[in-house]
Design goal:
The structure is a single chain. By secondary structure, this protein is α/β, with parallel strands linked by helices. The protein is built from 14 helices and 21 strands. Strands 4, 6, 7, 8, 15, 16, 17, 18 and 19 form a nine-stranded mixed sheet that branches. A six-stranded mixed sheet has the order 10-2-1-14-21-20, covered by helices on one side. Strand 20 and strand 21 form a beta hairpin. Helix 7 packs across helix 11. The radius of gyration is 21 Å and the shape is globular. It binds flavin-adenine dinucleotide (FAD). Flavin-adenine dinucleotide binds next to helix 1, helix 2, strand 15, strand 18 and strand 19.
Length: 414
């Protein structure tokens, strides 16, 4: 079949690669460079343990404090508040105890052996050197912060994630660069990370082309249907005939899905990173500071501090103060970092997480045509779940039953 995959991020490249392995004629379309969207600057974590949804019971009472704290993990551009209000309402509703248990179970299927799920693609691309399986460490400044996360750890345990709680001395043995202010850590040994998400996905895309796939630099604008059957994907550069299409345009997928009869509540949680070149310290595993709510990962470009959530939509300019906040938090986590850095040692970035209010991606067929498969809305976990999503997409294109349950990811779920 002729398959057109829309979007050249982690999800689109993995979907295109697995579809090509099934013998289809695959064209990937991307108006920018490969992996230059959210997939460029994330924290690189391939964490099977990321099953805990973002909306959890008790969040409502924490949000005002987060918004008021200038170093806090959440901000809203007030001009965007009316637009995002329905999304936030759904987000809070999604955080009931029974719903989070169901969301975690669905995510566990998608994230199972996240690291291993990349192996077929990474081996084929010869990109093994970009992956590290060195676990993931979650650290807390206080017992109270750790206790506040009890439900999250229960959800991980219930979903088969192995972890080890480390008290003070064991934590410092594990990661000596950490500040002594951090008292409790949890080590998740089976997780891993990439040392450069952009290069990883770009290498997979190069292998896709080497193996016979095509990449076209253009933007999808719509679909030509005859009845419910797909005829072509319409692009800024003309018509591309297609038997099947995949919508993997990340945070930009909403208008495409709408044309196919699905009004999905997709918005963007903007996130930032700052990278310190030639850092004084290099933690072995990626580290989630659960108190400061950001991730530190040693990358080939330097120490990357990534996180924060900003609601401001797809059009507003970055607020680079959000990236600088990450530097302050990083200096608190790692006292070995310098107090100030010359600008030439710092790079900063902002990206658009494609986020659904219930923390679950949209993976399934379009309402108006079963020839179009959706694969977007992966929020905070699109890198970790990219390869598995690609496998599921290939199954749906080939009319095979997916190897994991996908009902929870339906585009028409409430
Ligand atoms: C600060 C931060 C840290 C993160 N850390 C992690 C982490 O450690 N682990 C993890 O798993 N996830 C992490 N994430 C989330 C992860 O980066 C995203 O979930 C993931 O990159 C989404 O991939 P995607 O392919 O869906 O979207 P994208 O990478 O954004 O790709 C979508 C692509 O579609 C293209 N596109 C848009 N419109 C069209 C169109 N009309 N036609 C054709 N193409 C189009 C865009 O140009 C873009 O290249 C993080 C995100 C942020 C912001």
């Amino acid at each position: 079949m002729k398959v057109v995959v829309i979007g050249g991020g982690a999800v689109g490249v993995a979907s295109a690669s697995f579809a090509l392995r099934d013998g289809h004629e695959v064209t990937l379309i991307e108006p920018g460079g490969i992996a230059e969207g959210a997939s460029f600057g994330n924290a690189g974590c391939l964490n099977a343990s990321s099953v805990v949804p973002m909306s959890m019971p008790g969040n409502l009472s924490k949000i005002p404090g987060w918004l008021l704290d200038p170093l806090g993990p959440l901000s809203i551009r007030w001009a965007y508040a009316p637009k995002v209000a329905p999304w936030i309402y759904r987000f809070l509703k999604a955080g009931s105890p029974d719903r989070v248990a169901a969301q975690a179970a669905a995510l566990a299927g998608l994230l199972r052996d996240s690291y291993g799920s990349y192996r077929p693609l990474v081996t084929n691309a010869g990109a093994e050197a970009l992956l590290r399986r060195q676990g993931h460490l979650v650290v807390y400044r206080s017992q109270e912060d750790f206790d506040g996360d009890a439900l999250g750890w229960r959800l991980r345990r219930d979903n088969g994630i192995a972890f080890e709680v480390l008290t003070r001395d064991a934590l410092w043995q594990q990661e000596p660069s950490l500040s002594r202010e951090y008292r409790i850590g949890v080590f998740v040994p089976d997780n891993g990370h990439t040392v450069n998400p952009n290069r990883l996905i770009s290498r997979l895309a190069e292998a896709f082309v080497r193996d016979g796939g095509t990449i076209e630099r253009t933007r999808a604008v719509g679909f030509d249907l005859e009845g419910d059957r797909l005829q072509a994907v319409r692009t800024a550069g003309g018509r591309l005939e297609a038997d099947r299409a995949v919508v993997a345009a990340g945070a930009w997928s909403k208008p495409l899905a709408k044309q196919l009869g699905d009004d999905v509540p997709l918005d963007t949680e903007r996130g930032y990173h700052i990278v310190i070149k030639d850092p004084e310290i290099a933690p072995r595993s990626s580290i989630l500071d659960a108190t400061g709510k950001f991730v530190a990962t040693s990358m080939e470009t330097g120490l990357r501090l990534a996180g924060t959530v900003e609601f401001a939509g797809l059009a507003a300019k970055p607020d680079w103060r959000r990236a600088r906040i990450l530097l302050n938090l990083g200096q608190r986590l790692f006292p070995g970092l310098r107090r100030d850095y010359p600008e030439e040692r710092l790079t900063q970035w902002m990206g658009f997480r494609p986020s659904m209010p219930d923390s679950l991606p949209v993976i399934g067929r379009a309402s108006r045509s079963r020839d179009v498969v959706y694969a977007f809305g992966h929020g905070h976990i699109g890198l970790a779940s990219g390869a598995r999503t690609g496998e599921v997409v290939a199954d749906l294109l080939a009319d095979r039953a997916p190897t994991i349950p996908i009902e929870a990811f339906s585009p028409t779920r409430a």
